[in-house]
Design a protein that fits this description.
about 675 residues; Maltoporin, Chain A; mainly beta; 22-stranded antiparallel beta barrel; about 5% helix
């Protein structure tokens, strides 16, 4: 079936109207340019997520962490999961029952993080969780991370923070690139041959255009046979997966500054798991086929002094899975799920002068519609029809008040009307102030208070999360109610003339009606523990994060960070599970010659509570990655690396050890540029 064929008729009707509106609005007027997405300019690094407008990184009112394109290239990141591995305080966890990964921040779960692509949401693969390993980075310019409640601008699901992937604008002229790399798990290769190839990755890109039209087409494929830490049994710890991503972008600039952009993306994944025979039957496999089709439109223009941005999104995420025993042709537990998401976003920005100060007034309206269908062996699992739907409309207003050359006060509020849960209001206030220099030290203070709010999504209310391979299942709960939080963030950025930076930030999150799996009340059916979601806890997370950056010389730089997090149930005063108290990151970059670069990345995580009945702790761990890049010529780049050099892995015989899954992985590859 061709890309997106047979998909469009079932899309939300408003997308058709949005297309017409974007074309009409893009007729020649005085307009702003499409964001160039270039990280470095005369004003320094630029980001857009913290304020939904372009700002200097060191001048944003809300602290933002940036993963630059240069960092992505130096670390040879293939997926969004790879790109986020070295972010201070960010914890990556494998998604139970799947081969993917999710992220947590400041003790807040992945369900409470909002993952965006160019400001538009990416549909969750499990519960409210986005599988970070699914998204390839072929077109990515940079990634921005905002920690803490950002609901005043981004609404439900952003109570723990926002991760926004910014894609590149296609270049003019003609450009093409091809990257290919292969890797091996050594003694854990499923072939039994330590010298064989266990993973192949290919990425190709072609783009070009003129001053008015630009286009890009990219393709990415990551094919792995997985790995096996213990070949004495049937189970394999690394899935056999084949992930393919195809993307296209067309941009039109009909007049100076205005733009209209169309993005198409298709993702396909075929995954095989080798399940435990003791739990799921004699030598079973689980097969899953995943499809994601994504269409996004964006337009920017100005009328008078007001800047307008209009975006529309239609996305379909589909998962078809079944189990099959070795030697038997019949399959069982055939589950089909389809999640359709439609979003329309309107934003207006207008500079004003009020009360003897400069203001930037921002108004926005977001509309979102979701529908979920689910069948198991052809039988509806959601009501009698097998489907459920919800929608919500959200209006936000924000005022940036520049009360002096050094200070900025940001106030905002978001009004949400949900079809299932009614109305809710989320206010936020942030203050930024740059102190007078103390010698050669520049000091920037930031503080914010905001409310977070998240309604349970359709999957948490209705979907069956089948993790029987691990001995349990989690059932949706239609009686869930929304969870909310109050988030406090405060920090200071010290910038030294000697190319050093010290960034210190404290945080406190007070969470009410926390949605999580009820581990105290469950039943056992055929050896499988059956759990359900519930609003069972009030909780709080608090801590301190310190980041130190130092350019020792023109060729050597360091980046060190430590995050202390305390997460506890305020009703029982017990520590929350799966939240390590200490996370450390260390990075060292050495430009040996202008064409040869060596980087090292070290990740440390302290022990984490695995179970509360009784208290069982997963041990702490440390991993080290080494990467080398050699710019052989202007058109050829060679690279290689070793991930998890010390081969640190969890104890797979223990169900409460959550250390690293994959062992040592060695790879090499090349990039051709034209």
């Amino acid at each position: 079936m061709s890309m997106f064929s047979a998909r469009l008729p079932g899309r939300p009707r408003f997308l058709c109207h949005a297309v017409c509106a974007l074309v009409v609005l893009s007729q020649p007027v005085l307009a702003q340019t499409e964001p160039s997405d270039t990280s470095v300019s005369e004003l320094g690094l630029t980001v857009v997520t913290a304020s939904r407008t372009e700002r200097r990184l060191d001048d944003t009112p809300v602290r933002t962490e940036l993963i630059s394109g240069d960092e992505l290239r130096k670390t040879h990141a293939r997926s969004l999961k790879d790109a986020l591995e070295n972010v201070a305080g960010l914890q990556l966890r494998e998604i139970h029952g799947k081969s993917g990964y999710e992220a947590t921040l400041q003790g807040m779960t992945s369900d409470q993080l909002l993952i965006l692509i160019d400001g538009m949401p990416l549909a969750a693969s499990t519960g409210s969780t986005v599988d970070l390993s699914q998204y390839a980075l072929a077109d990515v310019e940079r990634i921005e991370v905002v920690k803490g409640a950002a609901s005043a601008q981004y609404g439900s699901s952003a109570m723990g923070g926002v991760i926004n992937v910014i894609t590149r604008k296609p270049g003019t002229g003609f450009n093409a690139a091809l990257t290919h790399d292969v890797g091996s798990y050594g003694g854990q290769n499923t072939t039994g041959n330590g010298q064989s190839v266990a993973q192949r990755h290919t990425n190709a890109l072609i783009e070009g255009g003129n001053d008015q039209w630009q286009a890009r087409l990219s393709a990415d494929r990551r094919d792995t046979s997985g790995f096996d830490a213990d070949d004495s049994n049937w189970v394999r710890q690394g899935d056999d997966s084949d992930r393919r991503q195809l993307a296209a972008r067309l941009s039109w600039t009909p007049a100076t500054g205005q733009y209209l952009a169309l993005d198409l993306q298709q993702f396909r994944e075929d995954d095989i798991q080798w399940l435990s025979e003791e739990i799921a039957g004699r030598y079973p496999n689980k097969f899953e086929a995943i499809e994601r089709d994504r269409i996004a439109l964006a337009s920017g223009f100005t009328l008078g002094a007001t800047r307008f941005t209009v975006k529309a999104l239609s996305e379909r995420y589909q998962s078809d899975s079944y189990k099959q025993n070795l030697g038997y042709s019949a399959s069982y537990d055939n589950r089909d799920m389809t999640l359709d998401t439609g979003v329309l976003s309107l934003q207006a920005d207008r500079p004003m002068t009020l009360w003897q100060g400069a203001h930037e007034l921002q108004l926005g309206l977001d509309y979102r519609h979701e529908s979920l269908t689910q069948f198991n062996n052809g039988v509806a699992e959601i009501g009698s029809s097998g489907s459920a739907a919800r929608s919500n409309s959200e209006f936000f207003i924000q005022d940036d008040y520049f009360f002096s050359d050094q200070g900025e006060l940001v106030t905002g509020v978001r009004l949400q009307q949900d079809s299932d849960f009614g109305a809710y209001t989320s206010p936020k206030i942030a203050l930024k102030y740059r102190l007078q220099p103390l010698g050669d030290v520049q000091m920037l203070l930031r503080t914010s208070v905001g409310t977070g709010y998240r309604v349970p999504n359709l999957k948490e209310r209705y979907y069956t999360f089948d993790h029987s391979s691990l001995g349990y299942m989690v059932l949706g709960n239609p009686d869930l109610k929304p969870e909310s939080s109050l988030s406090y963030q405060a920090g200071v950025l010290l910038q030294f003339a000697s190319r050093r930076e010290l960034d210190i930030n404290a945080f406190y999150n007070d969470i009410h009606d926390l949605i999580q799996t009820d581990t105290d009340n469950y039943s056992v059916v055929d050896g499988i523990a059956i759990y359900s979601y519930d609003n069972i806890d009030n909780a709080r997370t608090y801590g301190l994060e310190t980041v130190y950056r130092d350019s020792l010389t023109d060729s050597v730089s360091l980046n060190l960070s430590h995050t202390y997090t305390r997460a506890e149930n305020t009703d029982t005063h017990k520590v929350l599970t799966r939240r390590p108290e200490h996370i450390g990151r260390f990075g060292a970059d050495w430009e040996i010659t202008p064409s040869l670069t060596l980087v090292g990345r070290v990740r440390y995580q302290s022990r984490e509570l695995s179970s509360t009945s009784p208290d069982i702790w997963s041990p702490g761990w440390t991993t080290t990655d080494l990467k080398m890049t050699w710019q052989s010529t202007g058109w050829l780049t060679l690279f290689s690396g070793v991930d998890n050099v010390a081969n640190r892995q969890r104890d797979f015989s223990s169900g409460t050890d959550f250390g690293p899954v994959a062992g040592r992985f060695t790879y090499l590859g090349f990039t051709l540029n034209y």
